[in-house]
């Protein structure tokens, strides 16, 4: 009898713990969700599906996403969604070989850019809002000038690119290659290679630069997340405990936490400084594709393949809250320069 009572108490406690962390499911999509992203200002959440549909949500005062509309135009899976720093534009990448810029003030109007020869894995606007940068499995990086096509150019890497990031000072590319390496390249001239990051035992699916500067995280098929010193190429920390490949990662806005999603249907939250495993977000179905942490760090949105006949993302409460930036603590201050406002809006014609 004592054993039964203890089991009942444990089951009840477990249910309470998960009910405290689970928030809600977004079930407006008709097919599996491949990507999800919060806007930097915390006002929007976007999710992208395998059918090419992007759903846009407004975040209310309680942190609840309210479905507003769908953005239509892609003919293939939406692989990545990235808001601009000012949260006025949404850039989408797709397996239809293209990128699109969506003006959130007039979201029915979009512009198609950067046609590749293979699926686009990531694309985003640079800090000047003049270039759209995209990377593809065709092994190229395209820099498309939004107002002067003569200034556009293509960087040939030669190996399928799974992810791409640009340093805050715009001097370096960090390129995650399908073969399992990360290359640090100069962004100007002949794009000379500065460094190769080696340490993962398998393909690298995603990379993220720390908002506090000096570090980079990578997620791999080898069931781990590695934190790198971007100046030396050395491994600082390694987070493990996953049962399958880690598909996506994102830092909290203060760089103190990181969330990684796994294709076994689990996402994990870690404290970066200590390496402590904070919590698992489970019961996600399977095939976690993307994770996104909101502005204050209190919520994580997870793009996954839900069980049953509903499709969408899942929102969880993290149980943590990020610190506001301070001028006295480098660990809580972003090294990124203030984002410049667009000199002109991207052309919004279909």
Give the structure's gist in a few sentences.
The chain is mostly beta strands and 350 residues long. The chain contains one helix and 28 strands.
How would you describe what is shown here?
This protein is mainly beta. The protein has a single domain, classed as Methylamine Dehydrogenase, Chain H, CATH 2.130.10. The protein is 6% helix and 46% strand. The strands form seven sheets. Strands 1-28-27-26 form a four-stranded antiparallel beta sheet. A four-stranded antiparallel beta sheet has the order 2-3-4-5, with no helix packed on it. Strand 22 and strand 23 form a beta hairpin. The N and C termini lie far apart (69 Å).
SSE arrangement:
Blueprint: H1 2-21, E1 22-25, E2 33-38, E3 44-49, E4 54-59, E5 65-71, E6 78-83, E7 89-94, E8 99-103, E9 110-113, E10 120-125, E11 131-136, E12 140-145, E13 153-156, E14 161-166, E15 172-177, E16 182-186, E17 193-197, E18 204-209, E19 215-220, E20 225-229, E21 235-239, E22 246-251, E23 257-262, E24 266-271, E25 277-281, E26 286-293, E27 299-305, E28 312-317
Antiparallel strand pairs: 1-28, 2-3, 3-4, 4-5, 6-7, 7-8, 8-9, 10-11, 11-12, 12-13, 14-15, 15-16, 16-17, 18-19, 19-20, 20-21, 22-23, 23-24, 24-25, 26-27, 27-28
């Amino acid at each position: 009898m004592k054993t039964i009572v203890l089991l009942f108490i444990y089951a009840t406690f477990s249910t309470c713990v998960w009910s405290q962390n689970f928030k809600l499911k977004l079930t407006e999509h008709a097919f599996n969700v491949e990507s999800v992203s919060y806007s930097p200002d915390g006002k929007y959440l976007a999710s992208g599906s395998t059918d090419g549909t992007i759903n846009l949500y407004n975040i209310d005062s309680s942190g609840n996403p309210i479905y507003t509309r769908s953005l239509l135009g892609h003919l293939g899976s939406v692989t990545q969604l990235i808001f601009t720093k000012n949260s006025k534009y949404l850039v989408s990448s797709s397996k239809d070989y293209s990128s699109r810029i969506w003006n959130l003030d007039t979201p029915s109007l979009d512009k198609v850019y950067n046609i590749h020869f293979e699926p686009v894995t990531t694309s985003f606007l640079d800090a000047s809002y003049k270039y759209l940068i995209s990377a593809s499995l065709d092994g190229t990086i395209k820099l498309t000038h939004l107002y002067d096509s003569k200034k556009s150019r293509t960087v040939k890497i030669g190996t399928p690119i799974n992810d791409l990031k640009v340093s805050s000072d715009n001097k370096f590319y960090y390129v995650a290659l399908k073969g399992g390496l990360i290359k640090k390249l100069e962004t100007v001239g002949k794009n000379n290679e500065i460094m190769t990051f080696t340490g993962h035992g398998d393909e690298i699916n995603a990379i993220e630069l720390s908002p506090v500067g000096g570090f980079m995280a990578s997620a791999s098929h080898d069931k781990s997340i590695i934190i790198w010193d971007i100046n030396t190429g050395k491994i600082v920390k390694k987070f493990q405990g996953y049962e399958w490949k880690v598909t996506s990662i994102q830092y909290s806005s203060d760089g103190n936490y990181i969330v990684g999603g796994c294709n076994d249907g689990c996402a994990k939250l870690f404290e970066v400084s200590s390496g402590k495993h904070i919590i698992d977000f489970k019961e996600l179905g399977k095939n976690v594709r993307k994770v996104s942490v909101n502005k204050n760090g209190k919520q994580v949105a997870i793009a996954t393949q839900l069980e049953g006949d509903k499709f969408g993302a899942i929102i969880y409460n993290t149980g943590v809250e990020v610190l506001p930036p301070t001028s006295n603590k480098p660990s809580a201050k972003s090294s990124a320069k203030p984002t410049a406002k667009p000199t002109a809006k991207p052309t919004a014609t279909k």
